[in-house]
TrEMBL record:
Main location: secreted
Keyword Hydrolase: no
Keywords: Repeat, Secreted, Signal
The family this protein is said to belong to: Belongs to the cysteine-rich repeat secretory protein family.
Entry GO CC: extracellular region
Keyword Signal: yes
PANTHER family assigned: CYSTEINE-RICH REPEAT SECRETORY PROTEIN 38, CYSTEINE-RICH REPEAT SECRETORY PROTEIN 38-RELATED
Organism for this UniProt entry: Prunus persica (Peach)
Residues covered by the Gnk2-homologous domain: 1-103
Localization (cell): Secreted
Protein name: Gnk2-homologous domain-containing protein
Amino acid sequence: MFYMWNVQEVDDPMPFNAKVKELLSGLSTKASSNPKFYATGELELSSSETLYALTQCTWDLSSSNCKKCLDNAISELPNCCDAKRGGRVVGGSCNFRYELYPIVDP
């Protein structure tokens, strides 16, 4: 597993970190039940700021193992991305990414 993150930090880390985890946890469930093992989503943080995220698993995993892999990756948030405006955790079988700008085409 490796981490990548935006070097810029948010002003109010506690609620931001909670929203990141909330969005990614929902996308973990969504991706693990999607035949393509992929999910994207967004969460409005304020009238001027939106959080964008994606979760993805490799196709060799079962649905339950995809969920476990993503949940394990999401548990790494405090180690990699605490208060960061964007971040990624990339593992051999799954990954996630979040940013404060759109990261996939609609």
